[in-house]
Design a protein that fits this description.
The chain has helices spanning 9-24, 48-60, 78-87, 106-125, 154-160, 166-187, 213-227, 273-283, 299-304, 317-320, 324-331, 339-343; strands spanning 65-70, 93-97, 129-134, 192-196, 233-237, 261-266, 288-293, 308-313, 336-337, 357-362, 370-376, 380-384, 396-405, 411-420, 423-427, 430-435, 442-450, 456-465, 469-476, 483-484, 490-491. It has two domains: 9-346, Glycosidases (TIM Barrel, Alpha-Beta Barrel), CATH 3.20.20; 357-491, Alpha-Beta Complex (Toxin - Anthrax Protective Antigen, domain 1), CATH 3.90.182. The radius of gyration is 25 Å and the shape is elongated. An eight-stranded parallel beta barrel has the order 1-2-3-4-5-6-7-8, surrounded by four helices. Strands 10, 11, 13, 15, 16, 18 and 21 form a seven-stranded antiparallel sheet that branches. It has twelve helices and 21 strands. Helix 1 crosses helix 2 (48-60), helix 4 packs parallel to helix 6 (166-187) and helix 6 (166-187) packs across helix 7. It is α/β, with parallel strands linked by helices.
Length: 493
C-alpha cells in the first residue's frame, strides 16, 4: 500500500430495497443477469443495511464489479473527487482510513476521524458504499508510520493478545476509541466494509506473519460486536497477493465464521490467475474483491477474473500509476458499477424497509381515542405511574404495536410478556398470548414454530388500568438466549 505523506436516507432506501428483493424473487434483482444468492453475515445481529450490502455483493459475483477509490485520513474526499473530475463519474465505493500515521495528537486524530465519519454519512446519503481501512500504530506508541510499518517478534506480539497484560489493555483502549466513531456510523444507518489488519501474510506491519494472528482478529471482533454492538460492520479479511514476499492465504485466515468478504491487495499489475483462483477457492462462495490496487485492472483481467465484487484503487496511486485515458477506460467498462449506475435501477422505487414497530398510543383502554403515532424500536417499557405522553391520562391508556418479526433460527420460539396490566400477542396471525385482564408484573408465555429468515406478521395490544404501567415482550429458543426482542428482529409494516 501507499500513503500520502505531505441521516443515511437514500442509501437505506437502496439497500432496504435490495433486502426486500432478496425476500421475494430472483427476477426482481437489480440486473437481469444477476441470480439470487444466499449469504448471511457472520454477525447474526447485523443490521438490515449490512445484510443488504452483503447480499448485493453475493448477487453481483461473476456478473458486475463495483468501482472503488481510497482516500486518506487527513483528506477523506480528495481522490474520490479526482475520479469524478477525470471520468465524470464517482466510484461506487469510497474507501476511508481510520489509522493515524503522521504523529497526530489525540485531539487531531479525533477531529480527523470525525471528518471521515461526516464524509461517510454524506457518501451513504448519496447512495454509495463505504469501506474503512485501519492502519493501527502499535498500541500505546506514537501515531506514526514507523509504528505501523514495524517488525515485532512473536513473543512481543503475544503480549498484545494476552488478556491482563499492559499491552492488551493498550490495545483495548485503542479499539474503544475507534468504536466511538464507528458507532456514529451505526447510529446513522451506514453499513461499513470494515477492513482491519490487512496484508497480514506479509511481514511489513507489526501484526504481519504471526502464528496467532487470528487471536488479534478475534479480540477486535469480540470487542466491536459483543461490547460495542457495531452490527453495521461487514468483516473484510484482506491479505496481500501471495507473491515472493507473502505467505499463502490460508496461513492467516481467521476462518469462515469470522470473515464476510475476502479481498486481495494487488500491486505492480500482478494480477496472476493463480492469486485469483486460490482466493476464490478459499472463499467457498463468499464474495471476493480487490482490497487495494495500484494499477487498475484491464478489461481483459475483469473478463478473466469476473468474481471480483469490487476494486479499490489506493489513494494517489490512481494518478501516479495510471494515465488519464486508462482511468477513463476503466470507468467506462460495461460491467463496472459507478455510484451513478449503482443507483440507476433503483431510482424509480420509493420502497423502504426500516427496523422497528409501528406504534399507536390511545388515551383510553379500548383503542378508540388515538393520541400519538410513532415508531418504537422494541417493546421494553416501564412507565411507572405516568403516561407515555403528557397529553394522555396516566391511569387509562392503551397501545397497539404492529410490524414484521424475522427470526434467526428455524425452531420453536417461546414468546414471553411481562406486563402491568393487560397484554396479548399475535405472531403470524396466531394469538400466542392472551392475558387481557388487570395484573401487576405478571409473566405470560406462548410458543410458535418459526422459520429462519422468514418475516411473519407481529402484533401486540396492551392496556393500563391504574397503579403502574409496564409492557415488555421477550423471546427465546434452543439457540436464542432469552432477551427482549431486539430492534433488528422487527421491521416496520
Amino acid at each position: 500500500m501507499m500513503l500520502n505523506i505531505g441521516k443515511a436516507g437514500v442509501f437505506r432506501k437502496v439497500v432496504s430495497l435490495l433486502f426486500l428483493l432478496s425476500l421475494l424473487s430472483p427476477s426482481l434483482l437489480t440486473h437481469p443477469t444477476i441470480s439470487q444468492a444466499s449469504g448471511l453475515p457472520i454477525n447474526s445481529k447485523a443490521t438490515v443495511e449490512a445484510r443488504s450490502v452483503l447480499q448485493y455483493l453475493y448477487n453481483i459475483s461473476g456478473v458486475m464489479t463495483i468501482s472503488g477509490q481510497h482516500d486518506y485520513l487527513e483528506s477523506p474526499d480528495e481522490w474520490s473527487k479526482k475520479v469524478k473530475g477525470v471520468t465524470g463519474k464517482y466510484p461506487a465505493l469510497h474507501g476511508y482510513e481510520f489509522g493515524a500515521i503522521m504523529n497526530q495528537t489525540a485531539s487531531q486524530l479525533d477531529s480527523q476521524r470525525q471528518n471521515v465519519v461526516n464524509s461517510a454519512i454524506e457518501w451513504s446519503q448519496a447512495g454509495g458504499l463505504v469501506s474503512i481501512t485501519y492502519h493501527e500504530s502499535i498500541p500505546g506508541t506514537c501515531l506514526c508510520w514507523s509504528n505501523v510499518k514495524k517488525g515485532m517478534s512473536q513473543a512481543d506480539f503475544d503480549l498484545y493478545v494476552t488478556p491482563g497484560t499492559s499491552q492488551y489493555k493498550q490495545l483495548i483502549a485503542d479499539l474503544d476509541k475507534a468504536a466511538l466513531y464507528l458507532g456514529q456510523l451505526r447510529d446513522a444507518g451506514v453499513p461499513v466494509l470494515w477492513r482491519p489488519y490487512h496484508e497480514m501474510n506479509g511481514d511489513w506491519f507489526w501484526w504481519g506473519k504471526k502464528s496467532n494472528f487470528t487471536a488479534l482478529w478475534n479480540i477486535m471482533y469480540d470487542r466491536f460486536v459483543r461490547v460495542h454492538q457495531l452490527n453495521n460492520l461487514l468483516w473484510v479479511w484482506s491479505p496481500n497477493a501471495p507473491n515472493a514476499s507473502s505467505d499463502a492465504y490460508n496461513a492467516t485466515y481467521p476462518g469462515d465464521g469470522k470473515v464476510d468478504v475476502l479481498a486481495v491487495d494487488i500491486y505492480d499489475n500482478d494480477y496472476k490467475s493463480d492469486y485469483y483462483d486460490k482466493i476464490v477457492e478459499l472463499a467457498k462462495g463468499k464474495p471476493v474483491a480487490i482490497g487495494e490496487n495500484g494499477e487498475l485492472p484491464s478489461s481483459t483481467i475483469l473478463s478473466k477474473q469476473p468474481k471480483w465484487a469490487y476494486v479499490m484503487t489506493w489513494g494517489k496511486m490512481l494518478a501516479d500509476n495510471n494515465a488519464a485515458e486508462e482511468i477513463k477506460s476503466f470507468y467506462s467498462h460495461p460491467k463496472l458499477l459507478t455510484r451513478e449506475s449503482f443507483l440507476l435501477p433503483l431510482k424509480m422505487s420509493s420502497i423502504a424497509i426500516r427496523n422497528g414497530l409501528h406504534a399507536e398510543y390511545y388515551d383510553n383502554m379500548d383503542f378508540t381515542a388515538l393520541k400519538e403515532v410513532k415508531e418504537d424500536a422494541k417493546i421494553d417499557f416501564n412507565w411507572f405511574n405516568t403516561a407515555p405522553y403528557p397529553s394522555m391520562q396516566a391511569d387509562t391508556f392503551s397501545v397497539r404495536w404492529t410490524g414484521k418479526l424475522k427470526p434467526l433460527y428455524t425452531e420453536t420460539y417461546k414468546i414471553s410478556t411481562l406486563s402491568d396490566d393487560g397484554i396479548r400477542v399475535w405472531v403470524n396471525g396466531l394469538l400466542v398470548i392472551d392475558s387481557w385482564f388487570n395484573q401487576s408484573w405478571v409473566e405470560r408465555t406462548g410458543t410458535i414454530a418459526l422459520t429462519a429468515g422468514t418475516p411473519v406478521d407481529f402484533k401486540v395490544e396492551y392496556y393500563n388500568n391504574t397503579n403502574g404501567a409496564a409492557a415488555k415482550v421477550m423471546w427465546a429458543s434452543p439457540s436464542q438466549t432469552k432477551e427482549i426482542i431486539p430492534e433488528h428482529a422487527f421491521f416496520l409494516p
